[in-house]
């Protein structure tokens, strides 16, 4: 087994710096109108449903947890206790590629029902991107970009040094973005820290 050296620790810090650089580039490219529309629809919806596959699914669940703390009627698609989606509801999909078959197929069903579909993705010209009512683009590297390069110049040049693997860039960007949405919803709803804590699970 390889012995860990001090420079290995430095490489970790360089990778962290790369992730922060990715986030800064994402912030510069975000569509404010899309964010405004997402905030409005989330607040106006009767119920909020979130969905995602794999690690994006974990990000979706983290978002759902915070929405629950805020008092929203929120459900994770695929859970056994999730009710039927209705036209007055909002469904938020998290998918880096926008092409994940299970999520894209569910997105089509959402549109057939007549609900509002919001997608957070890195690919506007994707199945989910094309059918969604609101699309928030986080221009990050996804797991399908390994042979195509990424959005960073270094990545386009084929330099993968310190780049997080597969879809990590998108997953981190989406987690930070959705937590920022929560922060603004706290302001818009006037929720207090005490209210959020009162809804936190107490039977762990």
Task: Give the DSSP E fraction (strand runs of 2 or more residues).
Answer: 5-15%
Largest beta-sheet characterization:
5 strands, parallel
Low-confidence segments, ≥5 residues, pLDDT <50? 146-152
- Rg from Cα: 18 Å
- CATH fold category name: Rossmann fold
Question: Which architecture name does CATH use?
Answer: 3-Layer(aba) Sandwich
Total helical segments:
8
Order of helices and strands: HHEHEEHEHEHHH
**How many separate domains?**
1
Descriptive account of the structure:
The protein is α/β, with parallel strands linked by helices. It has a single domain (31-189), classed as 3-Layer(aba) Sandwich (Rossmann fold). The chain is 50% helix and 11% strand. It contains eight helices and five strands. It has helices spanning 6-29, 32-44, 54-69, 101-113, 127-131, 153-156, 168-189, 193-198; strands at residues 48-52, 74-76, 90-94, 116-121, 134-137. The chain has a five-stranded parallel β-sheet, sandwiched between helices. Helix 3 (54-69) links the parallel strand 1 and strand 2 (74-76). Helix 3 runs parallel beside helix 7. The chain is globular, with a radius of gyration of 18 Å.
């Amino acid at each position: 087994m390889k012995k860990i050296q001090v420079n290995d620790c430095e490489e970790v810090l360089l990778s962290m710096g790369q992730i922060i650089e990715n986030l800064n580039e994402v912030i510069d490219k975000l569509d404010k109108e899309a964010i405004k529309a997402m905030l409005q629809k989330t607040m106006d919806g009767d119920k909020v449903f979130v969905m995602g596959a794999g690690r994006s699914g974990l990000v979706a669940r983290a978002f759902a947890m915070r929405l629950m703390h805020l008092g929203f009627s929120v459900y994770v698609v695929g859970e056994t206790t999730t009710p039927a989606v209705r036209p007055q509801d909002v469904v938020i999909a998290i998918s880096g590629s926008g092409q994940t078959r299970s999520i894209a197929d569910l997105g089509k069903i959402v549109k057939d029902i007549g609900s509002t579909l919001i997608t957070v993705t890195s690919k506007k010209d994707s199945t989910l991107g094309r059918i969604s009512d609101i699309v928030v683009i986080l221009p990050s590297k996804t797991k399908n970009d390994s042979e195509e390069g990424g959005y960073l110049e270094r990545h386009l040049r084929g330099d993968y040094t310190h780049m997080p693997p597969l879809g990590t860039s998108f997953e981190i960007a989406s987690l930070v973005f959705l937590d920022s949405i929560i922060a603004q919803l706290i302001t818009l709803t006037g929720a207090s820290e005490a209210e959020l804590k009162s809804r936190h699970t107490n039977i762990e």
